[in-house]
Amino acid sequence: MAILDGKLISNIIKNEIAEEVQLIKLKNGKTPCLAAILVGNDGASETYVASKVKSCEEVGFQSELIRMPSDTTEAELLFEITKLNNDPKIDGFIVQLPLPKHINEQNIIQSISIEKDVDGFHPTNMGKLVQGLPSFIPATPFGIIQLLERYKIETEGKNCVVLGRSNIVGTPMAILMSRKGYPGNCTVTICHSKSKNLETHLLQADIIIAALGIPEFLKGNMVKAGAVVIDVGITRVKDEQSKKGFVLKGDVKFDEVAPKCSFISPVPGGVGLMTVTSLLMNTLKAAKNK
């Protein structure tokens, strides 16, 4: 069993990005800039955004963080997005999800300029992804692809099960794993809450990508020997013995599943770090496109 080390690969990619940023600065004096809008004070979102700001500093990006209160109206948020769409110094930006329930997330996603949609959630970018056209790949699936590629994990002809069908991870991940090329060329099955005979599908899988958001859902008896398991889930679970009062759990019961795997990604230290790094890769691409 080998660990898919998100920290190691993330640092390698960030060093590559930093070198490109220096070349861009020397060529035209421009520094890539990533902005983020954070509405409210969700704990997990605060942590994620802080990680993005820190990562920008590490690679030489400029970054902007726009904080808005939880009672921000949809109209106020749309106005802020319009400002970023029209700001020439901003290469890419994200609106941190989830948003307060009174704001329609789809309206917000569709209001972001496709040239600055470094989260890759806009329907136009998703449509390009489906058709195999150049686009911004959603950050978490992009990070998973990088892990598979950097560890040279064979995917052609393999059975891949994606647990979860969200527009952010599950659906784009299934598209990427089934497309022509590497990583890809898999036979992909998407499983979800309505799937029947779930264990049968999982036990046939050479690659499992768990993105349900249910802590320790995937157990040892659901995985065949030699499988590659990618754990996308990250949930705060209360733990009175922890100094923080919680521990982070993935969708995989690691102690049971890991001994059966050829490769497995841990939580924390796996996909989460790659998600932030992939956002930087998309921002660099946006800056170079300009």
How do the helices and strands line up, and which of them pair or pack?
Elements: E1 2-3, H1 6-28, E2 33-39, H2 43-59, E3 62-68, H3 74-85, E4 92-95, H4 105-111, H5 123-130, H6 139-150, E5 159-163, H7 170-178, E6 187-191, H8 198-203, E7 207-210, E8 227-231, E9 235-238, E10 246-249, H9 254-257, E11 261-264, H10 271-289
Parallel strand pairs: 1-11, 2-3, 2-4, 5-6, 5-7, 7-8, 8-11
Antiparallel strand pairs: 9-10
CATH superfamily of the largest domain: NAD(P)-binding Rossmann-like Domain
Distance between the termini: 43 Å
Helix content: 40-55%
**CATH topology group of the largest domain:** Rossmann fold
Number of strands: 11
Radius of gyration: 19 Å
Please give a structural write-up:
The chain has two domains: 29-113, Leucine Dehydrogenase, chain A, domain 1 (Rossmann fold, 3-Layer(aba) Sandwich), CATH 3.40.50.10860; 139-272, NAD(P)-binding Rossmann-like Domain (Rossmann fold), CATH 3.40.50.720. Helix 6 runs parallel beside helix 7 and helix 6 (139-150) crosses helix 10 (271-289). It is globular. It has helices at residues 6-28, 43-59, 74-85, 105-111, 123-130, 139-150, 170-178, 198-203, 254-257, 271-289; strands at 2-3, 33-39, 62-68, 92-95, 159-163, 187-191, 207-210, 227-231, 235-238, 246-249, 261-264. 40% of the residues lie in helices and 18% in strands. The chain has a six-stranded parallel beta sheet with strand order 1-11-8-7-5-6. It is an alpha/beta fold.
